[in-house]
Amino acid sequence: HQRHKRALVLCCLLGIPSASSLLIPHQSSLQNRLRRSPSGWQTSLHAEEQDDVVTSDAKSRVSSQHFPDSTQNYLSSTTPYNLDIARTLFPPLFFNLYQYKKKQHQQTQAKECSNNPSVRHLPQRPSPFLDPSSAQTAERMLRRMMENRYRSDGRTACPDYRTFNLVAGAFGRMRCGTSRPQRQQRKQRGGKRSKEKTVVSWKEEPKHNPKFRSGDSHNYNQIVATTDQAEGRNANTPVTMTPVDKLQELLQLQLQLCHYEGWSLGLRPSVSTYNRILKRLAFRSGNFSRGGDAIQALEWLQLMKSPLPATYLDDISREDMMCCPNAMSYAYVIEALSSYDAATASVTKQLSTIINPTLQSVETLSMELDVDMEVFAVPNGNSLEWFIREAEKLLVVLEEQYHQMLENSNDGSENRSELITALAHSYKCILKGWGRYSVTGDGTKYSSVQDDFDDATPSQKREFAITRANELLCRLEELSNEKRSATQVNFPSGVYSSVVLALSVSRRSTAAFLSEEVMQRMLARYELNDLSKAESFVSPSGLHAEDVVTALSGCIAVYAKNKDAPRAESVLNKMIGLYNDGRLGDSFVPDVRAYCTVMTAWSKYDATNAQNDGGKSSSHSVLTGRKQRVYNADRVEYILTRLEDLAESEASKGNNDFVLDATPYNIAIHSRVQAINRLDKPSYSDKAVFYEDEKANERTLLHAMTLLDHMEYDKGIPPDSYTLSILLHAWAQQSRPGNEKAADQAEGLLRRRIQSDDVKKSLDNSNMRTKREKSKDVWPNSKHYSSVLKAHAKTKSAAGAKKALSLLSEMERRYSNADIILYDDGSNCKEKDTNVSGYHIEERDAAKADLVCYSIVIDCFANSRLPEASAVAYRLLQSLEAKYNGGDTSMKPNTRIYTAVILSLVHSPYIGNIEGIDDGGEPSQSSMAWYILEKMKENGVAPNSFTYNYIINCAAQCNSGDVKARRLSFEIAIRAFQELRKTGDAGSDHNDACQPDSFTFAFVLKACNNLLPIGSPLRTKVLTHTFQECCRAGYLNDAVLDRLWNGVSSSEEFYSLVGCDTSEGNKISVQDLPLEWRRNSANGKRKATRVNDKETWEKGKSLATFK
């Protein structure tokens, strides 16, 4: 029966009307050729290829041996050539089908061969679906016919349309593109298969068309040679060919022959010839995102509709079109245009550029054929919008044909079926195109006909695309439900998922309602609503389990976007119900991303602000504050347990590719961490409530740690970098003065991730490379270390500063030891050039201490008030400068680091000598601060107002009894103040960060009070001028007023400066002074302590010493 069908196919392709008399001869002929060895088959082909010119008598003799006499009168003069081409093409095809059918027998025989060497394998021959050898042989025979035709000026046999169909069919049956699922490489999320797209291609030298003996001006050889010369390409350089390119090349060859022969009916290509190319161009455009294929398909359609040259219209009785396109022609072009995805396009050239250099553009071909083809404007860029709108124009043509068909009841059922199929296919393609456009948001502008859509904003275009996709879905449903149509429309489930995904990015308020409506229509069409009918369910055609998962996941995304977690979970329950009843088979596996989306929605859910679309309300009571966050975390963990049950179910079914990663656990941990209360709020008036919340936060974080233990030890899922960041940041937030336990917990978690054994010992292990390649452990990076260092710094204690320094030193030691390249001979990078490739401990295994880590530790010591704080801070600064001078530009100290080192001098005087400072002994604090400022400027780091303020404050802290030292400190303070004033005046318009502020004036007054004797004219002059400038700048506050009160010689002098009444009992505060004086200061509202009382004044002055 199979041989009977193959013979019928062969006869139909040869154009023989009566095939019944050919069955027996072809049956025996095929069986004999199948029994031949591959070597004998190849010898016969080579013998045929060696004949340059085969006479028609020989062809007739060959044909008479295979066909009965009753068919000889019907066959034309080209029939013998067609028979030779068919003999070349079809035996390897049948041989291949025979081998595929006997595949199981071959496997059995292969096992016998392993035991018995005398048994031979069946001969293996390359598949004609993958190997172009037989098709290339047929092409050479066709070109030889055309060459003979041209050389003889039309006296030899001319190839007809059947000849071209045979050769084109040989290339057409080759795979122009396949998507093979890789079971070994599935995506982890949802266990979906990743599809590897392959294309059959081969290398061959360019074949130029035969020259016309009549000397036609449109010579294709000349055109190609000119193009090769312009592009600097050798004409004999092999090019990569694909079946689609070869089909277009053959069609161009056939059209050129028609032009040479006068457009004879026996030569003109049929609609099926064009459709064969359009179908493959549409497939390649959608699967490989090649905009050039979509443009080519549209150009071929324009060529089909173009009129024939006027010189041939009188001799042709048919219509004047090149080839009248049918409904499927429009459908294939619509598919090519609407399936193009600009977001993933791999072609960077212009869309009208032909990828294969041996092919002419359709526009150039029309000029060569003297055909007046309509030229359309191609956009400059990969605009998906332009492609879909061109497809919409072609859809209008199909709809007009459909309405004419409904009015005319005399149309044949075959044409009616083809038109309905094409229209449904077009609806499906354009619907998916608009859905993809709404998701990707492609708003590329192009020059086209201006209308309302061109003037719309990107968001309006997106909403239009969503509305249009839903409208096309309704039309497709209406077309499939028509009772007068006997054609069963292929209704793929992917159209519903496309509309739902489009609605997931919509900003309209009814998006959630519409997405659920579309989802319900999908479930109702495929009878998936009633879970009780699972046993009697029969999967309809067009239903794909992945589309159902996508539609449900899209509906979940819409509800999650509206922050409606309860409804998102209800849709997830439907997905789990379909999975449990098993009606969709093993291919229906809920997507892990759907679970993660619902978990994320619950982690952000707020019952008081939840959107209740359609008047529905959530099923649980409204909670607020911490109770709501705890409830959300519990719901997230419940969904996580259901996801773990799904993973265990898939593992029991043998689906080892369904593997969970750390993402859902990260969501659960983050949701649990969000349940803690912030302790830095000033609303805690009751200490008991504060400590109670602190303990509750600690219990919450310990619960989050149990999730990490369950993830890593119970489920064997390694945590990622984000997992560690969540917990470390949470512990760092709980750290505060008096609560060092949180910082210790953070450091313990960090050390849990640090490698226990020394790096050098690990390098000595010969199997270390293999172990490192297989290991998936996440090692702490510099951000993780900085979080722990921050936790120690927030304690503001001496112990925290020492722990931070110890951790930084350990971090430097590990990175220094890990920076080793081990070679096969046992030497390291210190003995060889570091550019030589070798085994290197990655940075993730030993994090590098960056500038942030150093900055945190220096700040920690600057605020610790340890005696050695300034010495440690300065040594850390020297280490940074040494690394920067060594070539590490990322370690250049910044303004904050220099400022923190100067701040450490305020509370801890530096002990030791420094080269460059000569104070007759140990350098003073002020000299050390000014020295750091000079180094800061030398390194190109600009100081800010904090830098100068700390220098002034450091000079004001001088408690030496030496008058010379005190005078030097005062000079440094005034010098810093003057330099800050100059910098502020020069950059008053653009450098507001480096200007005097309230702290500046307060520290200058402090320096006057501490460094100048009471009652000296210099002290009075500096106090007066500083106070007046502070008032003019608008930075007066309580601190400045207090320092002025302590610095003046008498109360009358103070009240004369502030301009207030000196009567007894008059209280003075900043609020009593003009607003212009304090316009730029953030003044605290403190009670006035300055009272006009001479007795109180004298008591206060007796306590005013040089502090």
Account of the 3D structure:
It is a single chain. The N and C termini lie far apart (113 Å). A hairpin with a 6-residue loop joins strand 1 (178-186) and strand 2 (193-198). Helix 8 (161-172) packs antiparallel against helix 10 (243-261) and helix 34 (895-907) packs parallel to helix 36 (945-956). By secondary structure, the chain is mostly helical. A two-stranded antiparallel ribbon has the order 1-2. A two-stranded antiparallel sheet has the order 3-4. It has 42 helices and 8 strands. Helices cover 58% and strands 3% of the residues.
> What is the overall silhouette?
elongated
The percent range for helix content is 55-70%
Task: Report the C-alpha radius of gyration, rounded.
Answer: 43 Å
What's the total count of β strands?
Answer: 8
What attributes does this structure have?
mainly alpha, two-stranded antiparallel sheet, two-stranded antiparallel ribbon, disordered C terminus
Topology, please?
Elements (H helix, E strand, L loop, with lengths): L1 H13 L8 H13 L2 H13 L5 H11 L12 H23 L1 H13 L17 H19 L9 H12 L5 E9 L6 E6 L3 E3 L15 H11 L8 E3 L1 H19 L9 H18 L2 H15 L21 H12 L23 H7 L15 H24 L5 H28 L17 H23 L13 H10 L7 H15 L19 H17 L3 H17 L10 H12 L21 H28 L10 H11 L13 H28 L6 H14 L5 H14 L5 H6 L3 H7 L7 H13 L3 H21 L2 E2 L16 E2 L10 H12 L6 H17 L9 H13 L17 H14 L6 H12 L6 H24 L11 H14 L5 H17 L4 H10 L3 H8 L8 E2 L21 E2 L2 H9 L5
Antiparallel strand pairs: 1-2, 3-4, 5-6, 7-8
